[in-house]
């Protein structure tokens, strides 16, 4: 058993205040991002940031990812300041007990948060291929808190702490892999042969992404062709990120993943044509009309529609 004996260094005296300060900054950042996601606000300074925050990875269990960061930072702020609110002159034993018992929880929380951040940074770089300053800042906060919980307390057994940190990191990683498995089972970046038509130049907002997911989950279908200008207009209304989530069926044999037989069986009059609840709706459809036809009840502040 390895015991660490250290003098009462400044980091031991100030570690809780440092953790509380970083956690408070994290609470402010994630509160700002959570409100922006829920209200559909456009707060990204760069296109890359917008792509990351509006990607499928930015939602967990139907809730915005920053909300979970807010809970983590809030809990860290509460744990780190808990004994500081207890008057040592009157409740010395209680303060010491809270001081001792909160450190393992802070270490475990910091280990989970830094693992979470490392996983998401990997997704940002290798899956989304974009840079988000908010995500990078949050990852730096999480890493700093983990280092402080490791060196800011006189742990009796560093080997045991390493084992605990490893277990927490492994459980966090396995949970994230399970949560994001549906997204990773359908990678967007996989190269597929066939024509794709004009590039989508608009960016999706939270409302467009939520509507696209709802249409896909509800069994709706979009019959289109890669060369069709009106189909491109329909995609432009959704934006690049949401278009990737649409229940899209390519009706031209030269396009990607063509399903010409399915399209022919529908006796379509033109492209694009939506099928919602068994009814066909030809032509470019406003997003609000698609929302009404499909029973969508999420946010409707669509950023790419006129008016």
TrEMBL record:
InterPro entries: Thioredoxin-like_sf (IPR036249), VKOR (IPR012932), VKOR/LTO1 (IPR044698), VKOR_sf (IPR038354)
GO molecular function (one): oxidoreductase activity
Listed transmembrane segments: 17-36, 56-82, 103-122, 128-151, 163-183
Entry GO CC: membrane
Keyword Transmembrane: yes
A Pfam family that the UniProt record links to this protein: VKOR
Domain Vitamin K epoxide reductase: 12-153
Entry's localization field: Membrane
Membrane topology term: Multi-pass membrane protein
UniProt keywords, alphabetically: Disulfide bond, Membrane, Oxidoreductase, Quinone, Redox-active center, Transmembrane, Transmembrane helix
Family: Belongs to the VKOR family.
Name this polypeptide is given: Vitamin K epoxide reductase domain-containing protein
Species whose genome carries this gene: Shackletoniella antarctica
């Amino acid at each position: 058993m390895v015991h660490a004996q250290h003098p009462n260094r400044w980091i031991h005296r100030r570690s809780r205040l440092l953790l509380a300060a970083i956690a408070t900054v994290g609470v402010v950042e994630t509160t700002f991002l959570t409100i922006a996601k829920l209200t559909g606000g456009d707060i990204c300074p760069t296109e890359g940031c917008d792509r990351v925050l509006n990607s499928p990875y930015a939602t967990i269990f139907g809730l915005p990812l920053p909300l979970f960061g807010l809970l983590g930072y809030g809990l860290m702020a509460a744990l780190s300041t808990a004994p500081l609110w207890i008057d040592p002159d009157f409740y010395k034993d209680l303060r010491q007990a809270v001081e001792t018992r909160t450190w393992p929880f802070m270490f475990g929380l910091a280990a989970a948060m830094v693992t979470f951040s490392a996983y998401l940074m990997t997704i940002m770089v290798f899956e989304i291929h974009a840079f988000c300053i908010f995500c990078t800042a949050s990852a730096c906060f999480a890493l700093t808190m983990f280092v402080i919980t490791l060196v800011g307390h006189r742990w009796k057994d560093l080997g045991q702490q390493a084992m605990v940190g490893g277990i927490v990191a492994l459980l966090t990683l396995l949970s994230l892999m399970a949560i994001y498995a549906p997204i990773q089972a359908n990678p967007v970046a996989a190269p597929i042969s066939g024509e794709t038509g004009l590039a989508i130049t608009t960016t999706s907002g939270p409302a467009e992404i939520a509507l696209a997911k709802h249409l896909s989950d509800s069994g709706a279908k979009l019959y289109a062709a890669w060369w069709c200008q009106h189909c491109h207009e329909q995609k432009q209304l959704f934006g690049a990120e949401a278009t990737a989530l649409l229940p899209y069926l390519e009706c031209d044999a030269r396009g990607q993943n063509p399903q010409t037989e399915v399209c022919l069986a529908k006796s379509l009059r033109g492209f694009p044509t939506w099928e919602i609840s068994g009814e066909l709706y030809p032509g470019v459809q406003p997003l609000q009309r698609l929302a009404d036809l499909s029973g969508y009840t999420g946010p409707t502040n669509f950023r790419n529609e006129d008016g």
